[in-house]
Amino acid sequence: MDKIAYFVQKSNTNATAVAIFGAIGAVVVAAKALSFLKVLVDVFLRSGINVKKYDAGNGGWAVITGASDGIGKEFAFQLASKKLNIVLVSRTESKLKVLAEELEQKYNIETKVHAMDFAKGDDKDYQALQALVAPINVTVLVNNVGTNHEIPTPFEQETDKIVKDIVEININAAMKVTKIIVPHMVARKKGLIINLGSFAGLVPTPYLSVYSGSKAFLSSWSQAIGAELAPKGITVQNVNTYFVVSAMSKIRRATMLIPMPKPYVRSVLGQIGISGGASTPYTSTPFYSHAIANWLIDNTFGRAFWVKQNYNIQVDIRKRALRKREREAAAAAKSQ
Ligand SMILES: NC(=O)c1ccc[n+]([C@@H]2O[C@H](COP(=O)([O-])OP(=O)(O)OC[C@H]3O[C@@H](n4cnc5c(N)ncnc54)[C@H](OP(=O)(O)O)[C@@H]3O)[C@@H](O)[C@H]2O)c1
Ligand SMILES: *[C@@H]1O[C@H](CO)[C@@H](O)[C@H](O)[C@H]1NC(C)=O
């Protein structure tokens, strides 16, 4: 009799445990499903702050660094099409002048160009930029300029020059240019700062360690100044970018996961102030397939898994890059 009582009691306890864990499980699953649904709603249905708000057609200017190619050039076209005047900054003055001319003719806006090499970190170049923008009202800043390791390389083998350039261009340039532009925005209680972040800043990327760290810096710094500047009417958005077709990515063909700059930048400018696939504040992952990838990274496996995944990918890319270098060296030797 005692045995039966014991059995009944035990199975009751089991049933209660199953019910409790079942309920917790259901809540967890529901929460995950909801957060995934929110990503889809963000990227497919919502539209963010209209960039016209930043005095477009009304004397507002956008400053774009690394503006002569790739993603930066596309920002120049799309912001000009919204009637923002544009300040173009990159190394090559000739490229900037041709682009400026095209933007003025096509969109009937004003432009200014400023040629500087951010790798030099020369105060005089920054002072000249400050003087150039002093007479105008800058309402939008796109901290786009960036550089990467030439090929995936173990940290201890990377050249001092590449390490220094990445820090100077990806980190210091963003801070210094922002410091010049923010007073413009504070004065008008209005502004938008877009920083070009990367998935390499989200998941540490072995063999691209300095690039990865520079983008993690951008992520953290963007969130911190995002909170500082929000009460002043300034929106800061770190844009979590996965591969985009460009000279830097060395990818020439678009796929579902790798858009051309045009649709990519359209997704960024269409979702100002909206997080898309990103789970940190003042951050967005606006392109739909990137947003879904970002959600999967945040919600499946652990970070260790994704770091290992990145390690495997970069080891493979490095192998292929070294083979390509060998082939090119052999071809060069032959043609001599
Ligand atoms: N493409 C991707 O897959 C990808 C992925 C994640 C994040 N991002 C980020 O997106 C941003 C733009 O990348 P992208 O792919 O568009 O690059 P890109 O096509 O290589 O263009 C880089 C631009 O920056 C300028 N630039 C390069 N070095 C410079 C320097 N030292 N000083 C001044 N200007 C310089 C280049 O013009 P000049 O050569 O004339 O100076 C060019 O206009 C970067 O911050 C990158 O980290 C890109
Ligand atoms: C800049 O904006 C202010 C208003 O915030 C305006 O009074 C001034 O005329 C503008 N300057 C230029 C050069 O457009």
Automatic annotation (TrEMBL):
Catalytic activity entry: a very-long-chain (3R)-3-hydroxyacyl-CoA + NADP(+) = a very-long-chain 3-oxoacyl-CoA + NADPH + H(+)
EC number: 1.1.1.330
Transmembrane segments: 20-45
UniProt entry keywords in alphabetical sequence: Endoplasmic reticulum, Fatty acid biosynthesis, Fatty acid metabolism, Lipid biosynthesis, Lipid metabolism, Membrane, NADP, Oxidoreductase, Transmembrane, Transmembrane helix
One biological process term in Gene Ontology: very long-chain fatty acid biosynthetic process
A Pfam family this chain is assigned to: adh_short
CDD domains: 17beta-HSD1_like_SDR_c
UniProt-annotated binding residues for substrate: 198
Family designation: Belongs to the short-chain dehydrogenases/reductases (SDR) family.
UniProt name for this protein: Very-long-chain 3-oxoacyl-CoA reductase
Organism: Linnemannia elongata AG-77
